[in-house]
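User: Here's a protein and a ligand (pyridoxal-5'-phosphate). What would the complex look like?
Assistant: Let me lay out the input and then the predicted complex.
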Amino acid sequence: MTDEGRRSELAAALTEVNGRIARACEAAGRTAGEVTLVAVTKTYPASDVVLLAGLGVTDVGENRDQEAGPKAAEARAAGGTPRWHFIGQLQRNKARSVLAYADVVESVDSVRLAEALARAAEGRTTPVEILIQVSIDGDPARGGAAGDDLWRVSDSVAAAPGLRLGGVMAVAPMDWDPDRAFEVLHGLSERLVKAHPGATAISAGMSGDLEAAVRHGATHVRIGTSLLGMRNPLR
Ligand SMILES: *Cc1c(COP(=O)(O)O)cnc(C)c1O
């Protein structure tokens, strides 16, 4: 497809997604400006990031360091400089690599990972924003801090000079009603904000459940498929 063809395809999808966000906000008595769209560009090329940035998308999300590092460099060279969110499972030995391009790491779920990121962020002039990934059903298999780990991880992040505790992130468990899942997340966020008043971000909601997330206070929605199209299922 030509660049112009892809540009109009992305523009149409973006209008559709922004419309869904706006309608969900209106129904919830919120203003659309309260919700940031994070375009999840995993498996799609740097050229899509540049096109989306040109269409006004300010934030993009990636889940694999090997893919995201070169893509961020390529997008930057082509004039696309959105905020990069790392949203995937992260190994401690990749902390330094991820901080070379990420502005936000949304998937911090252990004290050990928080400590590795804190060491990698030492001496930064702008702290990297950290969201604590929460396991809503308490099953740590797909990542996420369960139970009291949320409070331990957030205290560790808050104490690190190179990190700024931004809030929470979660994926609704497959077998849960998303409204119930995001209601639980909202409750955890309220408790977190009591202890850390600046940690107000709630990253929740994907292509299939963004409306439920917005109903329950999401400040960030992470949208891949509805914006960029179906991904190759093997990736
Ligand atoms: C891939 C991914 C998304 C986007 O999912 P879609 O259903 O394609 O919108 C959101 N969050 C995380 C953590 C992801 O890995």
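Summary: The two ends are 21 Å apart (CA to CA).
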